[in-house]
Amino acid sequence: MLAAVPAVASSAPSSHALSEVRGTAALSWVDQQNQRTFAALEADPRYRGFHDSVLRIRQDAHRIPVPAFLDGAIFNLWQDAAHPRGIWRDATPGSFLAGQPAWTTRLDVDDLARREHRDWVFQGADCLAPDDSPCLIQLSEGGEDATTLREFAPLSGGGMSGGFVPGGFLLPRSKQDVAWQDRDTLLVARDWGEGATGVAGGAMTRSGYPFVVRRLHRGQALDQAVEVMRGQRDDVAVSPVALSDGEGHRLVLIRRSVTFFEDRYSLVTGQGVRALDLPARMDLHGLLAGRLILSANQDWVSGGVAVAAGSVIAVDPDGRKPVQVLFAPGARQAVDEVAVTGTGVVMTVLDSVRGQGWVYRPDAAGGWHGVRLALPDMMSVHVMDADRRSGRVFLSVSGFLTPQQLWLADSTDGSARKIMELPPQFDTAGLVVGQEWAISTDGTRIPYFIVHRADMRRDGRNPTLLTAYGGFQVSSLPDYDPVVGRLWLDRGGVYVVANIRGGGEFGPAWHEAGRTTGRQHVFDDFAAVARDLIARKVTVPAHLGIRGRSNGGLLMGVELTQHPDLWGAVIVGVPLLDMEHFETMAAGASWVGEYGSMSVPAQRAFLERISPLRALRPGVRYPEPFIFTSTLDDRVGPVHARLFAARLQALGVPYLYYEDTEGGHSGTVNAEEVARERALEAVYLSRLMNPGR
């Protein structure tokens, strides 16, 4: 039997107190909420089994190491029971491709954290091309977005053991971006301190990111760095970018993000900076044969060449050569990911939300030649890393029922071969995958994937978990998730992934339809999929649970308040929920391009109407939600979730709340914490929806 849930305290601290992320009153309330949730869910006899199952998945040695091409070797950050923070290591390409990598540890993050008494989380390395040495190691406290940067060299070569460079570059904690200009010079965007920029309000944008780029020479103190370029406080961010290709071309750029989706790029030259003529809405992927490779997210005309939104193009940064279109998607296609190797361009393309891999390379006639890679169908295809020294690229291929496979493709000849694959991590016998289409409120057809037992009875009693994202042009794809497999599918549950508007499944137009005041389309699409599942007698509201994180957490909050009668369970993860004040919370100002602004009357009216915190009403029977967030999330922040839970508390509505005191916005930072959070979710879903009947 489930242990009795302790009573909720009669009142929460004030909104002001809860908004103080590390305030004493707020953390005391958080601890009370956590203990209440632990008592309710960890006491369940199923909890330990769920927890241990997730922990085994996260610590399973039979995982494909995420590979990165660096310094002529294959690098990887590996986490396991002995190294929960991870070891950064390398192996020779030959041993890795043979499936028997002989790893050499370059940095033991656990050991570093112990020695320095810091909660270090490895966030990557930025290395100087073309030799990939030295590097700047990015370390964060507990997984937050702010990092400390420390010079590290050499890597796998040079006949030395490697390590942090004594007296090398050291940039203390800040939200910051850097680019190597040369071995002894960095371009740095960071918080330069109050009064350092001469701009009222400080050295960071209203979104909480840098807007001033300075040049820092080796041996200089930060206050000696000389300004190269600045943006404005109303920008999202300004950051330096260094690009190089296999032919030795090298460009140093400065990216000014005017909004979340609009960028202005300038080229750093010996005479200063020069603005580049590029589409405002675009994604820059790399440099090939001296040309910039980018995706245009808007229709654009340059030099008489018409570029359709969603196309991948090559642009001469000097403007002397005409723009070239590598790939223009069809009506049901969208470019998902793009990587640049030393010889070509590799892209993953969605065709009716089914993944494909393509390579394009320059041909003798001055155009581009494309070849589709021979990869399995009905899968997700993701770029893991590309080698700018050769044509090689690592791809991850998986499906809902197909464990992850690592493929090596080559843009030089269009070849692709499977290098390794994981053994199954849950029982897929008797399971099938289908793709269905729902009709949204305005008549738009919305696809969704459904995973279920082949002998599923259409009696409306099947426990069903529905998820989606619906924002920022991010696509929801058929990836292999062993946690969902073991904790849900293995126990008879149905799993559904909806490809609603706001995402990138059908290109920029699909995203555009769900931006700002068009966002109700996103919410309507999700509800339409739910109603379609009910109409097909897959499930009924009492057995229908929904889950989403971040922007998906906002989606869950809206669905809870707009359609409380449609759901039996609602999991709201690291969410935005106070849409009337999101612009002033954490990095919220950076998302005005996605959600709109309270300063625009029409957008203000929409945000007030859909804001989940405002929409909660007394006397409404809501399903009991499970809300989780992180204290160290410096992107969305925990305040949204706290205020929402406190409002439920004030209304006397049952809810469960969990705030992880480690990990940033992307999630918990070690296997034990991941296991705890996912096990809490699994008990919550089982308690309300009874999978495994």
UniProtKB/TrEMBL annotation:
Ranges for domain Peptidase S9A N-terminal come to 26-418
GO BP: any one term: proteolysis
The record's keywords, sorted A to Z, are: Hydrolase, Protease, Serine protease
The segment(s) forming the Peptidase S9 prolyl oligopeptidase catalytic domain are 488-687
Q: Does the keyword Iron apply?
A: no
GO molecular-function term, one example from the UniProt record: oligopeptidase activity
Give me the Gene Ontology terms describing cellular component.
Answer: cytosol
Would you tell me the protein name for this molecule?
S9 family peptidase
